[in-house]
Design a protein that fits this description.
Blueprint (H helix, E strand, L loop, with lengths): L11 H14 L3 H31 L8 H12 L1
């Protein structure tokens, strides 16, 4: 996979933490930043997809909803 250079600004304490960790586990700063960004994107993309699916379902004619009182009753039964 092709790699490109990207410049970012970080708080000094974040950079220091990355540097300390990279020395401890003998990985580059770039490795940690790239991994962190990739993991964040994976989670954010997943959440965005799931929210979009829920919105589409809620907008569909097949959507089923329950009332607030029904939810309270169900939780009361679970917690009893």
């Amino acid at each position: 996979m092709e790699k490109v250079t990207v410049a970012i600004k970080l708080k000094k304490d974040i950079k220091d933490r990355i540097d300390k960790l990279s020395k401890t586990v003998k990985q580059s700063r770039s490795f940690f930043l790239s991994s962190a960004i990739e993991n964040y994107l994976d989670v954010y993309e997943f959440q965005t997809r799931e929210i979009q699916k829920a919105i589409e379902y809620a907008d569909s004619p097949n959507a089923e909803f329950i009332t607030h009182d029904e939810i309270k009753k169900e939780f009361k039964n679970i917690l009893a």
